[in-house]
Design brief:
The chain is of the alpha/beta class. It contains 16 helices and 16 strands. The chain binds zinc ion (ZN). Keywords: Glycosyltransferase, Transferase, tRNA processing.
Length: 413
């Protein structure tokens, strides 16, 4: 086993922009880019059974490192995440930083910004409602069920990500919130750099200790909010380190997205792949590709499917709406996904979803709902994957901008 198992080749570029089409080679297979990576938070994509994975053209899966850390030993013993997921595809895990910090911010509470070494008792008194606090050492956090604080460090993130065994793992970073000050973002960025260095050292050590295992690529994660100089600093500093690729992170506001990606990607080494974390709206994907991002992930296509939202080229529809009650067309006419190629109509899937159509047992209601969610999930994920595939083709044909303008006009108008 050696490092040559992971590499990235660029096959075509968008003239006058940073975008490219290429292939990421990993020990568990290739990812043709630009690519949408499906989200399997707990190692499986909700309502996407393994037999459908290839049917919808999926190439790779990203899982939540934090949630899987609790079962990392089991995953290791089963042969790693690719096998454990039953998708047998290239896999990615995130560092867990986002989840740890969301114990503070995600619950409507603030992440403690204090860098000082507050004594535990004092911390408890001052931060009764805060469940996470960030220090240079790492993040102290409490879960609702745990009475005591736990320390989450960059080294720990590397340890469990190595056990989980995804092909691409992410360095531990500090995600800031949209409301954070410039001053705080500077501090957080420095910390993210220091944590990146610590991750790299730990990763290199673990790699040397386990040469028998397939090589795992470590991506550095860039933060810096919407500040140009901070984003550029992150790109220069992390770009100079020996990461295998880069993750672009942050709570992106739409108006800043293209600038942020441009600032980072024109500085980062061109030869390394870049993953945009957490965005999959079609206009965001186009902006991401144009500005040099290679892979994307987001829970939206699967989460929205569970709420009855169906993607179509003419804009999204909600199948729960009454207008689809007698609609005998497929989810989207001409779509080649497994659902639309089957005989299921909008009317039928709506009935399954809404528990209509006569008296049913509770088991039957559950089974029908599950089926409806599987049918819509396959369609939505296929829809986004197909979009990235068509973008890839448009780059090869030197027609990216024409394709973008035509596609977005139809979808958003
Ligand atoms: Zn379809």
């Amino acid at each position: 086993m050696n490092q040559n198992q992971f590499n990235f080749e660029i096959n075509a570029k968008i003239p006058g922009a940073l975008g490219r089409a290429g292939v990421i080679h990993t020990p568990h297979g290739d990812i043709q880019t630009p690519a949408f990576v499906v989200v399997g938070t707990y190692s499986k994509v909700r309502f996407l059974p393994p037999h459908q994975f290839n049917n919808i053209g999926a190439q790779a899966m990203i899982s939540n490192g934090f949630h899987l850390s609790r079962i990392s030993k089991d995953i290791e013993q089963s042969g790693g995440l690719s096998k454990y997921s039953e998708y047998n595809c290239p896999t990615i895990t995130d560092s867990g930083g986002f989840q740890v910090m969301s114990f503070g911010s995600g619950l409507g509470k603030v992440v403690s910004m204090d860098k000082r070494n507050i004594a535990r008792e004092q911390f408890k008194a001052e931060n009764k409602n805060r469940l996470a606090r960030v220090t240079d050492e790492g993040v102290y956090f409490k879960t609702n069920e745990a009475a005591t604080e736990k320390l989450f460090t960059p080294e720990y993130s590397m340890e469990f990500q190595h056990k989980i065994g995804a092909d691409i793992i992410m360095a531990f970073d500090e995600l800031t919130n949209i409301g954070d000050s410039r001053e705080y973002n500077e501090k957080a960025l420095n910390r993210t750099y220091e944590w990146g260095v610590r991750c790299l050292l730990k990763h290199q050590k673990l790699t040397r200790e386990h040469v028998e295992k397939p090589y795992q690529a470590l991506f550095g994660v860039l933060q810096g909010a919407h500040y140009q100089d901070l984003r550029e600093k992150a790109a220069r500093d992390l770009g100079a380190l020996n990461f295998d690729g880069y993750g672009l992170g942050g709570a992106f506001e739409k108006e800043h997205l293209s600038n942020i990606l441009f600032w980072c990607n024109r500085i980062l080494p061109e030869s390394k792949p870049r993953h945009l974390l957490g965005l999959s709206k079609p206009d965001d994907i186009f902006v991401g590709v144009e500005n040099g991002c290679d892979t994307f992930d987001c829970v939206a296509p699967t989460r929205e499917a569970r709420h009855g939202k169906v993607y179509t080229l003419d804009g999204d529809i909600n199948l729960r709406n009454a207008e689809f009650r007698d609609d005998s067309s497929p989810l989207f006419e001409g779509c080649q996904c497994p659902t639309c190629k089957s005989s299921y109509t909008r009317e039928e899937i709506r009935k399954l979803l809404k528990n209509e159509g006569g008296l049913k047992t509770s088991e039957q209601i559950m089974a029908d709902k599950k089926l409806a969610m599987e049918l819509i999930t396959a369609h939505n994920v296929y829809f986004i994957i197909k979009l990235t595939h068509q973008i890839r083709q448009s780059i090869f044909k030197k027609k990216f901008f024409d394709f973008r303008d035509e596609w977005l006009k139809r979808y958003y108008e």
